[in-house]
Amino acid sequence: MKYILLIEDDVTFSEMLKHFLERHKYEVDLSYNIKNALTLLKKQNYDLVFTDLRLPDGDGISLLKEIKNSKNNIPVVLMTSYAEVSTAVQAMKQGAFDYISKPFNPDEVLEVISNALDVKKTDTRDTIVSKISSKKDNSHASTDFVEGISAASKTLKEYIHLVAPTDMSVLITGESGTGKEVVAKNIHLKSLRKDKPFIAVDCGAIPKEIASSEFFGHKKGSFTGAIDDKIGHFEAANGGTLFLDEVGNLTYENQVQLLRALQERKVKPIGSNDEVFVDIRLITATNEDLLHAVDKGDFREDLYHRLNEFSIKVPNLKDRNDDLILYADFFLEKANKQLKKSIVGFSKDVLTLFQSYNWPGNLRELSNVIKRATLLTQTDVIHKNVLPDELVNSNKNSVPSNKFSAKKNEKELIISALQEVGNNKTKAAELLHITRKTLYNKIKEYSLS
Ligand SMILES: Nc1ncnc2c1ncn2[C@@H]1O[C@H](COP(=O)(O)OP(=O)(O)OP(=O)(O)O)[C@@H](O)[C@H]1O
């Protein structure tokens, strides 16, 4: 019987959910706060943590981080309200398995839970990494990967086909949510290593103090907290592909270690005297300008060239307008399946809005907008009234991007956009048609607090 830790401070709701899950043959422990949950996690081996995002003594994300930093590799599913969906998406980037928006229907809960329990994990790794099972075949992968029909997508497809069968290191660039990880998986699945592991690691989520142990592993007792031997990501990916996301976030010291491991093709777990030979194909991704980081001395040039034997830029959604409907249909079909709905399509108004919106969050944003709209729609067709305000009002508010590109009034535009949205950086970035990251960089550049 699978054992679930449910963390929810709404007493009535949590009791109902507990009984519901028990009726479906799960064993459930209930906690109303994080403190108690952490105690329970130490005592018991759970198969799944199902937690509310907001709790009296903290949020689900800090709990998620605690779990990731511990030796457990338990899948974590978050419960959120609609307003928190963007936070939940951030949480997924930090390793949460999935999120589910309240109010949810019983079937949806069961599906999310069974998906999370099915997920393949290696029990020796403590950072949540996604691993494509070696048995996963290409036919399945191809249904998860929509190739697109726009010119930009065709070029992308061509590059993937060309580079996949080689052993070249690939640097994938592109804005957040464009599908860099999906492209990396696709390269792996089209490569000769497809039957070996694909290990995805978010370098931005690894605290620098434990990065060496994460990458190279450690021996029991080699430092305080090393209570067991641990295999690092390099060894876990042996024979297959190691995908390092947000590679620009590695510290200088970690860059040196990574370069050494790549050059020597062997790693030494912390506390071990033995080196382990590793045969990996490296794919990295970044949404930063790594060359700029090289110029500034923040990223090692030798490592940059080692990673960039071949580079692929994943286009923004806005630059693949011809694909938009194709992706919208794909995400609708996916949401229908997940939410057990049978919505047939979008109203004309919605499609027009989709075409004119700038999609700063790219495919991830499109997917989220459609999942939410699918849940809210009670008719056959998705109408404008279930779209988020920022999308519906985008045309009214938008600052023309050509204005923004004029360097001299950039600062003024940022200030006025921030004022207009009450200093909300996400909304300001959307208004300016730039990513949040770019906005943060510009705020720093112009010393705007
Ligand atoms: N070609 C595609 N076909 C189908 N779905 C896709 C495709 N590309 C991306 N997606 C979906 O879009 C979402 C974002 O993709 P992904 O996480 O790969 O983006 P990313 O560029 O790696 O994001 P980040 O920079 O924030 O890590 C995911 O839900 C993914 O499944």
TrEMBL record:
<dbReference type="Pfam" id="PF00072">
    <property type="entry name" value="Response_reg"/>
</dbReference>
<feature type="domain" description="Sigma-54 factor interaction">
    <location>
        <begin position="146"/>
        <end position="375"/>
    </location>
</feature>
<dbReference type="InterPro" id="IPR009057">
    <property type="entry name" value="Homeodomain-like_sf"/>
</dbReference>
<dbReference type="InterPro" id="IPR058031">
    <property type="entry name" value="AAA_lid_NorR"/>
</dbReference>
<keyword id="KW-0597">Phosphoprotein</keyword>
<dbReference type="InterPro" id="IPR001789">
    <property type="entry name" value="Sig_transdc_resp-reg_receiver"/>
</dbReference>
<dbReference type="GO" id="GO:0006355">
    <property type="term" value="P:regulation of DNA-templated transcription"/>
</dbReference>
<dbReference type="InterPro" id="IPR002197">
    <property type="entry name" value="HTH_Fis"/>
</dbReference>
<keyword id="KW-0238">DNA-binding</keyword>
<dbReference type="InterPro" id="IPR027417">
    <property type="entry name" value="P-loop_NTPase"/>
</dbReference>
<keyword id="KW-0805">Transcription regulation</keyword>
<dbReference type="Pfam" id="PF00158">
    <property type="entry name" value="Sigma54_activat"/>
</dbReference>
<feature type="domain" description="Response regulatory">
    <location>
        <begin position="3"/>
        <end position="117"/>
    </location>
</feature>
<dbReference type="Pfam" id="PF02954">
    <property type="entry name" value="HTH_8"/>
</dbReference>
<dbReference type="GO" id="GO:0000160">
    <property type="term" value="P:phosphorelay signal transduction system"/>
</dbReference>
<dbReference type="InterPro" id="IPR011006">
    <property type="entry name" value="CheY-like_superfamily"/>
</dbReference>
<keyword id="KW-0804">Transcription</keyword>
<protein>
    <submittedName>
        <fullName>Sigma-54-dependent Fis family transcriptional regulator</fullName>
    </submittedName>
</protein>
<dbReference type="InterPro" id="IPR025944">
    <property type="entry name" value="Sigma_54_int_dom_CS"/>
</dbReference>
<dbReference type="InterPro" id="IPR003593">
    <property type="entry name" value="AAA+_ATPase"/>
</dbReference>
<feature type="modified residue" description="4-aspartylphosphate">
    <location>
        <position position="52"/>
    </location>
</feature>
<keyword id="KW-0547">Nucleotide-binding</keyword>
<keyword id="KW-0067">ATP-binding</keyword>
<dbReference type="GO" id="GO:0043565">
    <property type="term" value="F:sequence-specific DNA binding"/>
</dbReference>
<dbReference type="InterPro" id="IPR002078">
    <property type="entry name" value="Sigma_54_int"/>
</dbReference>
<keyword id="KW-0902">Two-component regulatory system</keyword>
<dbReference type="InterPro" id="IPR025662">
    <property type="entry name" value="Sigma_54_int_dom_ATP-bd_1"/>
</dbReference>
<dbReference type="InterPro" id="IPR025943">
    <property type="entry name" value="Sigma_54_int_dom_ATP-bd_2"/>
</dbReference>
<dbReference type="Pfam" id="PF25601">
    <property type="entry name" value="AAA_lid_14"/>
</dbReference>
<dbReference type="GO" id="GO:0005524">
    <property type="term" value="F:ATP binding"/>
</dbReference>
